[in-house]
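Protein: Outer membrane protein
Species: Marinobacter manganoxydans MnI7-9
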Amino acid sequence: MRKLMLAVGGSLFLVAPVSQADVVGLGASVSYWDSDLSGQAATNNDVVDVENDLNLDSDANANASLYLEHPVPLLPNVRLNYTLVEQSGRGDVGLTGFDGVTGDVQSDLDLEQLDLTLYYEVLDNWVNLDLGLTARDLTGDLIVRQANGLATSETSIDGVIPMGYLAARFDLPLTGVSVGAEGNFISFDGDSLHDFNAYGQYEISLIQFRAGYRQMSIDYEDGNDRLDVEIGGPFVSAGVSF
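Structure follows.
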């Protein structure tokens, strides 16, 4: 399945025209994402609702990105993006329980992903359009502990996943204001991952400020473990570009 997913994602490069920056460009940004979580986790044929049963709530979400654009023909531009989502909560899985854990529980969910994106600039004026391919290194761990400490369950996913990449931005001339959206996506054989955001941006000199909304959906199976969750909420970011 993974080979077919890679082939599907890689086909984006066959249709992307070669268009590069006129000069070398470098940029970086950091952001805070205030997200809510919903969905289910499953292990060993047991299923739990992460919102209603576990009462998971956001502890910390962080995001950082770095990109390099260059004028070298045929070679793609490069973007690195790191996202960390941490959720915890006290809940109740009842007498039927989840994976051997029953009653009151303390739960922690950690999702970590590192993206390497290779992309081409298809348009680069007041309308900007980028197309490319992302390799996402995704790890996720859900720990559910019985309140009395007698039983613990762990649900884990781990994989490197190819995804399509699309980014568009529209600049309002002479204002420093722009609006845009970007996303990664893949869907195949029951697994799917989607990660989109839409934003407004204000740029002054080398500094960029963004505010928008990000929605991430993960439906991924790794052996006997599966995460089927959605994470969404507003974000703010600050960055520099040279």
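Remarks: The CA atoms of residues 84 and 183 lie 17 Å apart.
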